[in-house]
Amino acid sequence: MEMNFAVQLILLLGLSLLAIPVCVLLVQAMAAIIAQHRATRLRVQRPRIAVLMPAHNEAGGIVEVITSVRAQLEPGDRLLVVADNCSDNTAELARRAGAQVTERFHDQKRGKGYALDHGMAHLAADVPEVVIIVDADCIPEAGALDMVARAAAHSGRPVQALYLMYSPAGAGPMRKIAEFAWLVKNLVRPLGFQHLGLPCQLMGTGMAFPWKLISKAELATGHIVEDMKLGVDLAREGRAPLFCPEALVYSYFPSSEAGSRTQRTRWEHGHMSVILTQVPRLLAAGVGAGNGALLGLALDLCVPPLALLVLLCAGALAVSLLAWAVFSLWAPAFVAALLVLAIGVSIVAAWMQYGRKVISFGELMMAALYVLGKLPLYLKFLVNRQVEWVRSKRDTE
Predict the structure, then answer these.
(1) What own/partner pairs with CB < 8 Å and gap ≥ 24 does 22-27 have?
(2) What is the number of other CB atoms lying within 10 angstroms of the CB of residue 125?
(3) N or C end of the chain, less CB within 10 A?
């Protein structure tokens, strides 16, 4: 009897922890579906902006990105490319395309955060009102820079554009599933929280900051997910990021398996590290201070990558069913089944509202193979996690 009680208590405690990210995802998906968002053009004067573009060996595509950015600049605006530890002709191509360029070389301090810090020091000689960070492989749609710049100037807070990644032409169902998972993370979830008046995470590109805010931020770090860390730091200061879904910035997943694997490992290992190191303190700070924005950001961060959350729920159900068979404990199995149902409802609802153009229902049903294929990545986190920033290999390399 005591054994049964102990097993049931342990299982229910574990399931209660798992229920937090599952419920957050469900709430976000449902809120995104009922959201009636209407784009409103802010009537504040357009601020003078500087677009800061970190670039490491981006010769293959930087000209197209610079062209799209320059088309949205007005007199007095700037575009600064930081050619960081480049071994190709990124700097030369950027200059020819009409960007200001500063080059940076350092054997040890490598990564996007150091490049951004170098660029900010360069911009300090002619201070803009708003700084917009755009990665060198991401294209902002027409009007995107204007929208996020006005929103940042109006709110005094960081503003995150909608950042989507598309599958390359001819991609198979696994890449389309990855594109759908990205859509859930970067559109459905932040849109749901926006509808509830809560902040979003910073996504690394398409981010606008008032100069007074970003100039004081700690950027010179080699953190594996420097954008998440920056969003957390600013939220602690009462400046949690706002979501601007009308402004779109997009890129493409690498076609090569090596590039895609590097990209996934950096993002997902970084996210899981943030969950372990930042979320408990953020939750405590949000509850202690009665800060809804900080608490909302902590809850958003506690949702792991979608494939991992599915794996955890499936594993929890399997263990709970085993406990039912061995110890006749039905309560954990019932709770685990509810969690699996909740995550299933969240995914299907997100697909019905936003994912139909990305992936067919038949392809979505192959997601189990996609989830199982990511098991090595998650096991690697336990035994040999990635802790340093590593750039993904581009298709042009």
Answers:
(1) 22/309, 22/313, 22/339, 22/342, 22/343, 22/346, 23/342, 24/299, 24/300, 24/302, 24/303, 25/189, 25/303, 25/309, 25/342, 25/343, 25/346, 26/342, 26/343, 26/345, 26/346, 27/192, 27/196
(2) 6
(3) N
3-state secondary structure of 52: strand
What torsion do the CA atoms of 58, 59, 64, 68 make, to the nearest 10 degrees?
A: 50
- Rg (alpha carbons) of the chain, rounded to whole number: 22
> Which residues contact residue 245 at a Cβ distance below 8 angstroms, ignoring those fewer than 6 apart?
37, 162, 187, 190, 191, 194
Q: Would the CA dihedral through 25, 391, 223, 151 be positive or negative?
A: negative
Whether the Cβ atoms of residue 294 and residue 361 lie closer than 8 Å to each other: no
Q: Which two tokens stand for residue 157?
A: 């807070």
Give the CA dihedral 70, 73, 74, 78, nearest 10 degrees: -90
DSSP-based helix, strand, coil % in the chain, nearest 5: 55, 10, 30
List pLDDT tens digits, range 243-288.
999 999 999 988 766 556 666 677 787 778 878 888 888 888 888 8
> DSSP secondary-structure letter at 76?
T
**What is the rounded distance in angstroms from the CA atom of residue 358 to the CA atom of residue 294?**
32
Amino acid at 342: A
Beta bridge partners, 53, equal 81
Strands 242-252, 139-140: pairing kind: antiparallel
> What is the share, in percent, of the chain residues with pLDDT greater than 90?
70
Tokens of 201: 């995470």
